[in-house]
Fold:
Amino acid sequence: MPTPLPVLIAGGGIGGLAAAISLARQGIPSLVLEKAQSLGEIGAGIQLGPNAFHAFDTLGVGDTARAMAVFIDRLRLMDAMTGQDITHIDLGAKFRARFGNPYAVIHRGDLHGVFLRACRETPLVELRTASEVTGYDQDGATVRARLANGEHVTGAALIGADGLWSHIRRQLVGDGPPRVSGHTTYRSVIPTDRMPEDLRWNAATLWAGPKCHLVHYPLQGWKVFNLVVTCHNDAPEPVAGKPVPFDEVMAGFTHIHPRAQAIIRHGSDWKLWVLCDREPTPRWVDGRVALLGDAAHPMLQYFAQGACMAMEDAVALGHEMAAHRADLAAGLAAYHARRLLRTARVQLQSRAIGEHIYHPAGVHAALRNAVMTAKSSEDWYESLAWLYGGNGLDEKMREA
Ligand SMILES: Cc1cc2nc3c(=O)[nH]c(=O)nc-3n(C[C@H](O)[C@H](O)[C@H](O)COP(=O)(O)OP(=O)(O)OC[C@H]3O[C@@H](n4cnc5c(N)ncnc54)[C@H](O)[C@@H]3O)c2cc1C
Structure:
């Protein structure tokens, strides 16, 4: 029998590698084409809802992912103007019992490494670096990916997991550049002994202020704290990972409480991102080509779910490709149908919570505090059940 053509995957980030593993678990070979010279992740921390752990388990990497994670016991919301607690969500035994999995934080490199190791352990995944995909052609039976170096690579299908600036999306959807949100994020990592002692909480903490917020949590076995601070300063251009001096960071936070400002003073080696997202699109699939992860549904980070959604996409993709081996285009259409509304909900609600929880001022902020203080952890579990209960497949399909 001839060897089947691999599924081509443009992009070896978290979404692309998770997709490769998901296909391999169904016996489907893939070839990952990554633009960079080496495989890896930049940036420090990432939060993982229980839905991420459902996806890890379905992808067979649950134990290795758990070994890398820090299991926090609260999501805390603080008022950045007064320095007061607003509310918290308890992530202890009741939360885990409700969702069947924990909430955790992990270093991005460690998360990427979990998938990279799994890819290297199976002969069904081939990884190629220095391979930028610029576009594709298809003939109904195969897809040809065009590479920047002039090469062509042929596969049974093509998955565009090439991130926010996806070339595959440019050809498939053609909806221009992403929307610049005007929100500027600065990231730093603080050795734990430099984090103010009274704030070394085992929590993901959000300090919410007018047009700005801070997030911090412990990482890497408590060696460091991840610190991400954001201000809505109407930045006009997208930027990714530009080093910036401390004074430029602090300029967006001069109006907040000294206790919150003090945290920023402990940061160093700051880097800046101007955040982008997109409107949800109904078009993710073109015959044997489909989008996945940020290429399909880039979102603001306010639900901390972009990577979680990419992993859920991977689960759904593997499932549908296996269910439609004789008609891969139908498999991609079924994958899209399964994922479209859930990811659109996260995209749109991420914007909404940015406006109503992270960044309000004055009466709007007082209303936030009043509404959120009145909620118990159980109320929050109920509100978040639609999100944390999923794994990319609904219950019926999980049993199938
Ligand atoms: C400040 C911030 C905080 C966040 N926090 C969280 C969080 O707490 N929890 C969470 O779940 N998510 C979070 N996210 C979102 C998360 O980082 C992304 O959603 C996730 O990394 C998307 O993964 P991806 O594989 O789809 O895309 P990417 O990570 O962008 O990977 C794309 C890959 O494709 C490669 N590539 C690009 N173009 C090409 C090409 N033409 N050909 C071949 N290869 C190509 C790139 O080099 C890269 O390796 C956050 C995002 C930001 C900005």
Notes: The chain has one domain: 7-177+278-399. The two ends are 29 Å apart (CA to CA). The longest strand covers residues 179-191.
